[in-house]
Amino acid sequence: MDRGRRQQLRDLAAGNTPVGVMSVRLGRTEDAIRSKAQTEGIALSPPNRSPYGDMS
Question: How many C-beta atoms lie closer than 10 Å to residue 32's C-beta?
């Protein structure tokens, strides 16, 4: 995976994009996406957020 693809992976992960969508956009399998993210230290798990935004 080249530098541009790694940056795209970071951007998609930052946007809480599902791994399945990432795999289609990057042309890799879901396992390859998860493996590369782990190697690069990119978190794929979205933080726990309310789907309704800030309720306070």
Answer: 14
CA dist 47 and 16 (Å) reads 9
Model pTM score: 0.74
Long-range contacts of 17-21 (CB under 8 A, 24+ apart): 19/44
Closest C-alpha among 6, 5, 11, 17 to residue 39: 6
Q: Are 23 and 30 in contact (CB under 8 A)?
A: yes
And the tokens for 6?
């790694």
State pLDDT tens for residues 2-42. 889 999 999 999 988 889 999 999 999 999 999 999 999 99
